[in-house]
Amino acid sequence: MDVTHIIESLNDAQRQAVTAPSQSILVLAGAGSGKTRVLVHRIAWIIKTQDLSSQSILAVTFTNKAATEMRGRIEKLLDYSAQAMWVGTFHGLAHRLLRRHAHEAGLPEAFQVIDSDDQLRMIKRLLKALALDEARWPPRQVQGYINGHKEEGRRARHMPETGDLYQRQMLTLYREYEQTCMRSGLVDFAELLLRVHELLRDNEKLLQFYKQRFLHVHVDEFQDTNTIQYAWLRLLTEGKNNLFVVGDDDQSIYGWRGAKIENIYSFQSDYPNHLVVRLEQNYRSTANILNAANALIVNNQGRMGKELWTEDGDGEPISLYAAFNEQDEAYFVVERIKKWVELGGLRSEAAILYRSNVQSRLFEERLMSGGIPYRVYGGLRFFERAEIKNALAYLHLIAHANNDSAFERVINIPNRGIGPKTIEDLRSVARDERISLWQAVNKLVLSGVITARTKRVLNSFIDVINNLIEQAEGLALHEKVQRAVEHTGLIDFHKKEKGEKGEARVENLQELVNAARQFDYEEDNTEGLNELDLFLAHAALESGEMQGDQYDDCVQLMTLHSAKGLEFKLVFIVGVEEGLFPSPRSIEDPSRLEEERRLCYVGITRAMQILYLSYAESRRIYGRDTYPKCSRFIKEIPSDKIQEIRMGATISRPVSMAKSGFSPRQQKTAFQLGQRVSHVKFGEGVVLQVEGEGAQERVQVNFTAVGMKWLMLAYAKLEAIA
Question: Taking a C-beta distance cutoff of 8 angstroms, is the pair 236, 57 a contact?
Fold first, then answer.
């Protein structure tokens, strides 16, 4: 049997992993080293050389897309269909097992799988049935509690009662939730994995059947497995040398959602007769990029150890830009992208990576103003996020209380106890009398036909809106937004959501205030609208335009977490500052700090040719001005791998920029960034940006009295303050 075609294109380390005798094997696969290639070729090699049926193979990965691609590549190597092979995600394979053995698993044959949103709605109904206030017992917090314990293999009946009120109530909710699911025949995602583990653990005959069925078990992205996933892998492979896992401890970045980096370390003790193969040759990045990544990650303790290398050349040094502020940072990045495109590069080859979603707004605005299409990968654009749309709805009601769409969106956000029936009653009044919902609610509370409780909760909403309208008089735009997010209870509402999601929502609301503070418009082109109306129009237009389709030639914006597994010729990692990246919570926690460093390592190794790191010397974020320090991660990269770029009143041309074909515009002006100036109408301020030349030259100034303004120097009559 000729199998040379399976291994002829592999390097030595890849070939060692693919052709190793049957035993438990851990492939430590560095970024860009061909880990999926090794997994696919290993499966094809085993099937061909051992003359096995594809039914005897179990292959597990983390996304349906990856599973589909894996099956297709295996079929190409085998030159026949591999439909009988069990390849899929942990959840997909667990579902398949439970469908086959529903009775043994204690489930009805027609059990239904519910997604995360369905689970959350179910928890909300449970809280209502138990007369528990969502403000005190946030549904997402309850959801996280239940799923977290399931992922650790703990049922409610396994958990002891404690004296702590919070723990007692959460445990009661967990029990009630389990009973509701059992009565209704419902299975959530965490339940799929836990139920399969219990099925195999408690049914020896069934376990032995599948241990004999699956002669070889393969796992991709092993560093991302959680406790229960590893537990059922161990059940299927216990006593057998048939587990082949591919992973990278340096790319373990999902600890916050349950992934256990300890699994990759435990493998060596759990499978004593194992083989470790290191894939260190990188096929993606230049040597300078890889050397920087190696120097960074070596600062983590307890690594299994490997060093990426490439046969390609050094490439460009990494460019480091110290921005004056976050707006200067966005301007710089977008100008580099423009130059990239001018030189023949594709927009889709460029990616802007950030630690927090809140950072995307300024880049979105700058790309928009430059007419550059972009796509927010794996997330929503800033003005499309639910918490932002809620705040904007309140602002719409301040501006125009008769806006029915805004009214319906927030009448019960945060929860006021206004139920669907009351809202339908309001709709009926509005329809029958052809009035707005705002008019209907005022009419209904005066009608005397509703209960005292309904009247009370509706009046609470009316009071919120009326107070906002009254207080908005004479306030600056950002102050109106500040009151809208605070006095409506939105900030407090999201603060009660535990975990990163709740924190992110609060940060986004604070950033909305910042967006209003920085909002600028041409006074001669306002169509008679006031500043609040203009801001709301700006938000609506931004949420509907310039969002590139997945397959369009558009710039890619994403968090560093979303970037894992992707690669781009031109990469910008922005906001590399202490307190932002690494994040505030990680600075005092060694394990979290190491995960942040791994996240930076992942970001760096996304870059194929050119990598920029940037930080701002001053940044307004989360509603406050900060003066951050350059991140420790930058300081851990050898200085000879970094070319620092400084742009002031006179822009210099660094060597690395000349080599890469970038040529920043030479510019001289009467003003420098950071210089204090005076204007006859706006008073004193600080110069933040300078653009254009000659008659088109303009500056952006942050005035103490009126905030940000762009001014044409030919007409502005600015004076420098000594």
Answer: no
* CATH assignment, 388-524: 1.10.486.10
Task: Report pLDDT for 660.
Answer: 37
Residues 558 and 351: beta-carbon distance below 8 Å: yes
Q: Evaluate if residue 390 carries a pLDDT over 50.
A: yes
Query: What is the reported pLDDT for 654?
Result: 33
- What mean pLDDT is predicted for residues 479-494? 91
Catalytic residues: 35-36, 220-221, 251, 606
As a whole number of angstroms, the distance between CA 82 and CA 71 comes to 7
- Listed by start position, the domains of the chain span 4-101+193-281, 114-183, 318-381+547-660, 388-524, 676-720
Angle, CA 588 vertex, CA 586 and CA 591 arms, to 5°: 60
Helix axes 287-297, 590-604, angle to 10 degrees: 180
Q: In what order do the strands lie in the sheet with 555-559?
A: 374-376, 555-559, 350-354, 568-573, 607-616, 318-323, 642-645
Torsion of CA 659, 662, 663, 664, to 10 degrees: -130
Residue 650 has pLDDT above 50, yes or no: no
The sign one gets for the Cα dihedral 83, 84, 87, 92 is positive
Gap between the Cα atoms of 691 and 676, Å rounded: 17
Sign of CA dihedral 447, 449, 452, 454: negative
- Phi/psi-derived region of residue 707, left when phi > 0, alpha when psi is between -120 and 50, beta in every other case: left
Burial of 389 (0-12, 13-18, 19+ CB in 10 A): middle
What does residue 174 show for φ and ψ, rounded to 5 degrees? -60, -45
Q: What is the dihedral of CA 285, 289, 294, 296, to 10 degrees?
A: -140
Backbone torsions φ then ψ of 146, nearest 5 degrees: -65, -50
Q: For 553, list phi and psi in degrees, rounded to 5.
A: -85, 85
pLDDT of 547 strictly over 60: no
CA distances to 193, 257, 458 from 233, in Å:
11, 19, 54
Same topology, domains 4-101+193-281 and 318-381+547-660? Answer is yes
Backbone angles phi, psi at 448, to 5 degrees: 80, 5
Is CATH 3.40.50.300 what the domain over 4-101+193-281 is classified as, yes or no? Answer: yes
Q: Tell me which residue of 590, 621, 420, 389 sits closest to 503, measured CA to CA.
A: 621
Contacts of 395 (CB under 8 A, 6+ apart): 480, 481, 484, 532, 535, 536
Distance CA 349, CA 554 (A): 8
Q: How far apart are CA 140 and CA 499, in angstroms?
A: 9
Distances (CA, A) of 427 to 337, 396, 408, 418, 436: 49, 19, 10, 13, 9
Of residues 610 and 500, more confidence is placed in: 610
Q: The pTM is what?
A: 0.74
Q: How far is CA 294 from CA 307, 355, 580, in A?
A: 6, 20, 22
